[in-house]
Design brief:
The protein has 12 helices and 14 strands. With 320 residues, the protein is of the alpha/beta class. It folds into 2 domains: 193 residues, Rossmann fold (3-Layer(aba) Sandwich); 96 residues, Alpha-Beta Complex (UDP-galactose 4-epimerase, domain 1), CATH 3.90.25. Strands 3-2-1-4-5-7-11 form a 7-stranded parallel beta sheet, with helices on both faces. A 3-stranded mixed beta sheet has the order 8-10-12. It has a two-stranded parallel sheet with strand order 6-14. α1 links the parallel β1 and β2. α3 runs parallel beside α5 and α7 packs parallel to α9. The relative contact order is 0.14.
Length: 320
């Protein structure tokens, strides 16, 4: 039976991935860790929780030994917009933190999952059908940390035989934990605004296309790539994965099918626009499909229906 450590468990992806893995493996086999103490809620109630700072290698090594960990899902990160305000912190957590994880994995013989991002690409990258292997010259510190992370994972796999794998996530849309400062966060915030106030101020311009994915598919990708037969993996790390691509106007129109009196206006944020304009319109994820059977379950219509249903229920119950 696997024993898994998840860093950044309090974040948007980490919180839901932890619960899904616990449902599959049993709560005691999945350790939730975060820099902030977790003292309540589902993560606290369903399995072990620990306070751990990924920039402190001794803390991570201690948890790996304490729980006999064989797989680390390293999700601790500073997202794109926050990273521009705090670039030093973004580098420390995004690169130095990953280095610590990989060093512990090398010493303790652990597998590692590292989530890269569309942020790893830049304005010189092909915008449409962005290839798996292509030029990467990001313009954000977040993107710099992701490219560095991809290279670190490849180095540790080749040099030290660490089983380091990962995907390049698009924007993640979730009805659970709220986002924490990413450029694609508008695609979550718009749903809450549509249900609660029926008005939304969009920080990106119409025509700003970005890859997106619903959280259940993101969790599926993170688990499936780690369970894949290594003999079939030509890349192992930083697989492009996506399920839909849209701009704010398309998403707005889709939501209005369910909430006709919803209104949206545009007030573009210069920092987010600079970052978004450097990212692909749509990635080519054929390598993930061919090498480990990636196949998303949610398209824009199915995701929109589910998001509105869940958020409406929360609103009616007074939870948001």
């Amino acid at each position: 039976m696997k024993n898994i450590l998840i860093t950044g468990s309090g974040g948007q992806i980490g919180s839901e991935l932890t619960l899904e893995l616990r449902s599959r493996l049993g709560g005691s086999h999945v350790v939730a860790s975060d820099k902030r103490e977790i003292t309540e809620g589902a993560l606290f109630e369903t399995g072990p929780v620990e306070v751990a700072d990924v920039t402190n290698a001794k803390e991570i090594a201690g948890l790996v030994k304490k729980y006999n960990i064989d797989t680390i899902y390293h999700l601790a990160a500073v997202l794109s917009a926050v990273g521009e305000a705090k670039p030093q912190l973004a580098w420390d957590i995004g690169v130095n933190g990953l280095y610590n994880i990989l060093e512990v994995a090398r010493e303790q013989k652990c597998a590692v999952f590292f989530p890269s991002s569309i942020g790893a690409f830049g304005p010189s990258t092909p915008l449409d059908n962005t290839p798996q292997d292509t030029i990467q010259r990001p313009v954000s510190m977040y993107g710099v940390t992701k490219v560095s992370g991809e290279m670190l994972c490849d180095y540790y796999a080749q040099r030290f035989d660490v089983d380091a794998r990962g995907v390049r996530f698009p924007g993640i849309i979730s009805n659970g934990t709220l986002p924490g400062g990413g450029t694609t966060d508008y695609a979550v915030e718009i749903f809450y605004a549509a249900v609660k106030t029926k008005h939304f101020v969009c920080p990106l311009e119409a025509g700003t296309f970005l890859d997106m994915m619903y959280m259940p598919d993101a969790i599926k990708a993170a688990i499936n790539v780690m369970e894949a037969d290594p003999k079939k993996l030509k890349h192992r790390n930083a697989f492009n994965v996506t399920s839909m691509s849209f701009d704010p106007e398309i998403l707005y129109a889709e939501i209005r099918k369910h909430i006709p009196d919803f209104k949206m206006e545009y007030q573009p944020d210069p920092v987010k626009m600079r970052i978004a304009n450097s990212w692909p319109n749509k990635m080519d994820d054929s390598c993930a499909r061919e090498e480990w059977g990636w196949n998303p379950e949610f398209d824009l219509d199915k995701m929109t229906r589910d998001m509105i249903q869940v958020i409406r229920k929360k609103f009616e119950m007074g939870l948001i």
